[in-house]
Write a structure and sequence with these properties.
The chain is mainly alpha-helical. 58% of the residues lie in helices and 0% in strands. The chain has two domains: 111 residues, no CATH class; 49 residues, no CATH class.
């Protein structure tokens, strides 16, 4: 099943963006058997929410107050002077926030920033980038910015989808279960993901 530019526009992707993404999206979906109405609808819905309708291929790590940063960091909390240095400094914040997570080394290594979330469905952490690089025979570990290019953003998202066995959940119309796998326990915008999936299904019929 091939998705046309006009169909991407119909589900809410800007025309210029749809033109850029149509070909790499179809190639990635074909490779990983995201090839039915139910699978494509669920996949697009998740990608649209995760990437702000394909417009943001890199996570926004920018906080303007120590209080907001404090809410994101695990215990034990850093001192107020340390929190202050993270305000409006996305690189320092990412290195602090993601230190030791998902294969990242300590804060000084810079892994948190280097392997920050990128793609239509975010790769995040040294471990994710390593696994994707190995599976897709790419240079993501050494050149993580590649994942923020449309071709690789589509490819890594479809690879994640396949690895997480989300086609099976899509076949069963379990959109909330997919959201849990993609977004975690926060289930951010779960209702919007359901609605986008339903809207896309009507477009592809």
């Amino acid at each position: 099943m091939i998705v046309a530019v006009e169909q991407l526009v119909a589900v809410g992707i800007a025309p210029a963006t749809a033109q850029v993404f149509a070909e790499p999206l179809n190639e990635a979906c074909t490779r990983f058997r995201i090839n039915t109405c139910a699978r494509l609808s669920a996949f697009l819905a998740q990608c649209m929410v995760e990437s702000s309708r394909f417009e943001r291929l890199e996570e926004n790590i920018f906080d303007t107050s120590a209080e907001r940063i404090q809410a994101e960091l695990p215990q034990p909390l850093p001192s107020l002077p340390e929190l202050a240095r993270l305000v409006r400094d996305p690189q320092a914040l990412a290195n602090r926030l993601y230190a030791g997570e998902n294969g990242n080394r300590d804060e000084r290594s810079g892994d948190g920033w280097k392997y920050r979330g990128r793609g239509l469905i975010r790769l995040r952490g040294r471990e994710d980038y390593t696994d994707a690089a190995r599976s897709l025979n790419s240079r993501y570990l050494d050149e993580p910015d590649l994942v923020a290019r449309p071709v690789d953003a589509c490819l890594t998202a479809a690879w994640f989808w396949h690895n997480a066995k989300l086609n099976l959940l899509a076949d069963a119309a379990l959109v909330d279960a997919i959201t849990w796998r993609v977004n975690g326990r926060t289930m951010l915008d779960a209702g919007l993901r359901r609605q986008l999936s339903e809207d896309a299904a009507k477009t592809f019929v």
